[in-house]
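Reopening this ticket.

The earlier resolution said the output was attached, but the attachment link was broken on my side. Pasting everything inline this time so it's all in one place.
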Amino acid sequence: MYIPEFNRVEDRAVALAFMQANPFALLISTTEEGPFATHLPILAHEVDGQLQLRGHVAKANPHWKSISQAQESLVIFHGPHAYISPRLYEIHESVPTWNYAAVHVYGPGTVFREKDRLNEFLQGLIAQFDSSYAAQWPSLSDQYRSRMVQHIVGFEIKATRVETKFKLSQNRTKAEQGNIITALESSSDSAVVAVATLMKDRGLGSR
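Inline output:
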């Protein structure tokens, strides 16, 4: 990913927090026919300083076969984004742009289909995204749960490279950053407002 130095984020904790806040990601692996992509939720966590990603796909989705065969896969975590108008800049001769944040994670993957591992993974997934379902899932019949688990394949990717890009008008003046934040905060689109929040979290726009 092309990252100008003023948009690059080296802090792994910031990257991890961003991935955990934006878990719906894009998994891309290489096949003989070319790149293959799947949109899905992915859990990111660190184990002994090693960033690991875990997720699952439907058994009917051929992607799981290429995850372990590919030398490495790419997972893209993307957050809020917003159009930035040049009217917010102090210099008249300016052009529009787009503010956004993204984390790219590269690494080899392995798959797992053991019932115990899949159940452990699903419990973590449920705990993170729908804790109210944590009581309902075990109350379902063993036959039903076994059938559901048989239709998925889990995977794990150990990161070998992480690229974090926050393109948030870092190259503009503090006054311009303030103008951008004010304009984005006035939007009725919550995703656009989230860009303003991300900018303020990074200390931008403060005078």
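Reporter confirms the inline version is readable. Strands lie at 24-31, 34-41, 43-47, 50-58, 73-84, 97-107, 109-112, 152-158, 161-167. The helical segments are 12-21, 63-69, 115-129, 136-139, 142-150, 174-185, 190-201.
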